[in-house]
Amino acid sequence: MTAPPTYDAVVVGGGVHGCTLALFLARGGMRVALIERGPLCREASGVNAGTLTMQMTRVALIPYALRAHRMWATAREWLGHDVGVVVCDGLSLAFTEREAEILSFRAGKRREAGAPIDLVSPARAKAIEPGLSDHPILAGFCPVDGYASAYLTGLAFRRALVEAGATLFENAEATGVEPCAGGYAVRVADGRAIAGARLALCGGVWLEPMCAWLGVRLPVKVLVNQLAVTERTPPVMRSVVGVASGLLSLKQFANGTTVIGGGWQAVGDRDRGGFALRPEALIGNLRLACHAIPALRGARLARAWAGLEAETADAMPAVGELPGLPEAYVCGGVHSGYTSGPYIARLLAERMLGGEPDLPLFPVERLLAPAPEAAGASPRVPAGADAPEGDPAR
Amino acid sequence: MTAAAPPLRAEAAVIGAGPAGATAAAVLARAGVSTVLIDEAAAPGGRVWRAPPDVLRARAGGPELAEGDALRARVAGAGAQLLAGAVVWSVTELGGRFRIDVMTDGGMTDHGPRVIEARLLLVATGALERVSPFPGWTTPGVIGLAAATILLKSQRMAPGRRLVVAGAGPLLAAVAAGALKAGAEVVAVADLNGAADWARAAPALAGRPALAARGAGWVAAMLRAGVRPGFRTGVRAAHGDMRLEAVELGPVDAEGAPVAGAPTRRVACDALAVGHGLAPATEITRLLRAAHVFDRARGGWLPETDDACRTSAPRLYAAGDGAGVLGAAAALAAGERAAAAMLADLGRGPAPRPAPGASRAARFGAAMGRLSRQRPAATAAIAPGTVVCRCEDVTRAEIDAAFDAGATDLNQLKHFTRCGMGPCQGRVCGDAAAELLALRLAGRGGVDAARRAVGQWTGRAPLRPVPLDALIGAFDYADIPVPDPAPL
Ligand SMILES: Cc1cc2nc3c(=O)[nH]c(=O)nc-3n(C[C@H](O)[C@H](O)[C@H](O)COP(=O)(O)OP(=O)(O)OC[C@H]3O[C@@H](n4cnc5c(N)ncnc54)[C@H](O)[C@@H]3O)c2cc1C
Predict the structure, then answer these.
(1) Distance from CA of A355 to the nearest CA of B (A)
(2) Residue B321 belongs to a domain with what CATH number?
(3) Do B319 and B265 lie in a common domain?
(4) pLDDT tens digits for B188-215?
(5) Residue B477 is assigned to a structural domain of this protein
(6) How is A316-363 classified by DSSP, letter by letter?
(7) DSSP letters spanning B360-371
(8) What pTM does this model have?
(9) Does this complex have an ipTM over 0.90?
(10) Where is the segment annotated Disordered (chain A) (predicted)?
């Protein structure tokens, strides 16, 4: 007879999803192992823009994002460590008639989903954000907005996980998984096998190769998001500012630096990471930023970088059990996943602990491609997961 | 909207117009390869042969001016296109071409952003000065030895009236002698090395009599002025609030660690020129993800190159101090070798001959490198409250705390503490911060093995801070190529 697995749960991938999941499983009384190829939260979850906003969140995720926002705002209580969360006003701007149309439609849909977004005049917007230029003709205003210092995520979760008694395997690359007696055994690059009664794959853009270990094809598209930060300057703005299309995110941190993002694409892939910037995209992004907040022109660019964000076929999360593989779960593909990640991963923890989550998970059947021999067919996407009808941006 | 200058297209681009880069560019251009040579300075020469402004030429003189002028004439005669006063802020490689983004400050006519595209790229960006942190090292009045040599060469100006010169390597005597010539009083010279250390370097020095003689001349000038070098002496602290007022000096052991309990000496001064050796400037080779190796004697981390200066990345070459600190003479030879390899790789020249063993120039450079190597024992002695990262105000104690909290590599340390996240991109603190982590991490393999595990900063653009205003220029909103909106 073989010994039962050492752990109640093995989580592979230590981004915001894997860390939150491991934390709540450990707090729920499970013996948990977290396996991470590098240090914790150094991929998407440590290099993202840290914006905690409803105005860039997908409509169907608004109920989750609102709850997640509350979690971030109270991170000191449940996480126990600081990630520099600031809750502040958020504005989404329209500079042209067409953008105003998109903004009105999108803000309306998000409001229906529960986000407290109001459309406001340029004058009102300028009262909310005195740093604004005179260019906006309409703005979406949401008091539930804010940001975190994403680079602190790994440190905060690491401390919390150690305190919760989770076993951390950092700098340990998982290379495969096999079902074993009573669960799953994860192989690590140094040859060890780490076995658990439950398995959770939280690999961000690497979810696709991780699922392949179990013969499951879950296509994940790799977005290579570019970000920039300025040197410290005197205050130029006090809220989170975006644009109707979602292609700008802008906020100034307490230390005076301003982070400029919005999902402009750099060059990279799963193997090499985000390895090259596109200077013309960077300049475009910076122009858009200065069009919104003109005082930024006086700043100097200090650093730019790129990180990898996962997108499933329908750009909706993959969170739930893998079909035919009992007690094997995935958690990822969450759009604006830094904002919503903690809440969504906590829902999965509730399910794995045997409870009934407050909001539904995101079953993955819809995303699975046929096995390699039947390749060629595209994944089945149910109509329900599509964007709302009538979006003028589409 | 102002029309952006069109991209400059060439077969080869060379970044850095010091001895290595300027030589290579001249050889390439002579062979008919269209070549763009890019440098921040107004003229070729690099740091070592920096061109003095015209008004000061008459007073400049000396062998370095002659060597620099010869190099400048060679570049001008060869027909390489020189882009001077151009700060490179981004280098990318896409579709078989390098794209180099620069900000020019030079001519009144082409001020602003510029793009250069080339198939082959030689990085010859030289070295950065390393300063091992001590209490008060950020006080105004404290400057690097390398910065002091630039002041002396380009302005004939000493960094202060009462100067202390401290640290390690040949720059010590050069700065002391130069400052004396510029009329300053040199109140103390503190050399981490002892007479025995210099004696060990003597055979390699003898192989380069001209350079050794130049060094002897500097020392003679010091002695004539009554300045005696203090051997095996280090800076314990710099004192002064708004301005430097005094420097505290004390004895160090053979490994550069302060001798515990030994008496220290307080020297009143208004300037301290201090440097603890040179490190290859690897920003661009890191940005392009070439493989790097750690070699303490050649300055620390450097791009891995074959003996023809090829890096591990296709069509990317590195030569000169930026590929391992060996000094100007070795850099000249490396420039020739790099150009030969580039010509061969373009199908325009014979395969480069394998380099003969280490040349005298290289042996000389290596001996100097050993004298100015980073010393783990000196780093280990940094006090907990001493600031290591001056941009972000991170102390040694905070770095130790980050290690205790689980940070085992340099980039993780950056996330935990912001060390290296400031405008200098970790250029100043990187070596000290990495060594501090490595000292904690070091196991049986020793500190060097731990340095390899700790790694280097991930390369990031911009390579130098760039003003947003200059970067984005004037534009119409409608012309911003905004991508398609994210899904709703
Ligand atoms: C540049 C950028 C900006 C962004 N800005 C925002 C924003 O402002 N607001 C917002 O809400 N969202 C933002 N996002 C999205 C957000 O960052 C991600 O949705 C979220 O962090 C994803 O978390 P994750 O845990 O799923 O993935 P990740 O953080 O990528 O974690 C996956 C982990 O799996 C590990 N792993 C992979 N393979 C293996 C293996 N074989 N063995 C062991 N471990 C492995 C990886 O090392 C990694 O740590 C941004 C994303 C990027 C890239």
Answers:
(1) 31
(2) 3.50.50.60
(3) no
(4) 999 999 999 999 988 888 888 888 888 8
(5) no
(6) S-EEEEPTTSTTEEEEE--TTHHHHHHHHHHHHHHHHTT---SS--B-
(7) HHHHHHHHHHHH
(8) 0.94
(9) yes
(10) 373-394
